[in-house]
Write a structure and sequence with these properties.
This is Outer membrane protein A. The protein is α+β, with helices and mostly antiparallel strands. Helix content is 57%, strand content 7%.
Length: 389
Amino acid sequence: MSLDLGHLLQAQLGNVLNRFVTAHGESAEGSAKATGLAIPAVIAGLVKHISGNPANAGSLFDLVKGSTGHTLDGAVEQAESGHNINGLIDLGENLLPNLFGSKASNVADQIAVESGISKASAGSLLSLALPLVLSGLRGEAQKNDLNKAQLLGLLGQQQGWLSQVLSGNMLSALGISSLSGLFGGLTGLLGGAGAATAATAATAAAASSGSGLGKWIALALAAAVGFFAFKSCSTGQPKVEPAPAQEAAAPAEAPASETVAPAAAVEPEAEPAVALNPDTALVTYEDGVAKFYFATAKKDVADGAEMIVADVIAAGKEGKKLVVSGFADSTGNAAANAELSKQRAQAVKAFFEAQGVDATNIELRKPESTTGAIGNDVEGRRVEVRVEG
């Protein structure tokens, strides 16, 4: 299905968002510029959130097609009529940290810089834009009866539009190194039946454990339901209580590859760990780090990896050093796991050599931290690649 989300969402949401920002005392020109940035920023954030992550992709599909997002039905019409604006903003404020992580304030600040509106107005605009964009996507998904692959395909067609409207500074604010790497991760989800199977399994796991975007959406929408119900019998403007935040525990890491020099300590990840079918290999590229996830007991690099890590390959060909660090499962035979992890790191090294990177530009480096994979076998089945120099 071919659809220009840029024109569609601008037509659906542009006027209501412009009026909202103008009502905050901003100029018409600044309001239009800010709206023209907020909508694509939300789409880019959605693509970043699901790129290479089957669990998040499944949660998004349930939101825009399933019962999880029923409260979003009619949100655009409500905003156009001026009803429940505060409730929609509160809903957006609850969801923004789970979509953008710690980058939400950076994105709002960059909207302010590029449009000339105040940071406060930009923050409110972004909070309102998120549920309205999701409502617009939900409307299109239902109208066209999109399945999961079609929805991902639709999002995958937006690279050209986003490259025209999002500046390099905005991409940096979003935590996106490059759009090619970002959309390569999305292509990986569409690459075959294996990815689809992983998405189904990971979504079920996320639902059963109450983790990931789906849980947060359910909590935030439940809060919104209460607000809308209260609003219908009150003329006040009550605020939705934000859903309680929960930090994902950082998985421990086990050493794997041969030591050449100690790598920098791995920081705990702010976002939930990847949920993946144990029989599936996957590659992601985010915030300058390429992560190669392997199927259980396997050392085969995922198909299509060269598209996802194209920027890393290019850096290696330019003479920059690619540091390859492997991690091991925390369960089972420690010696066997360490050996398999070493073989996986060597497989990743061989992969980059096959792409034309000189072997002298690739270094196998044992990670300094050895606690990252305990309790999370998926993270223990990964090899990370960072660019130095």
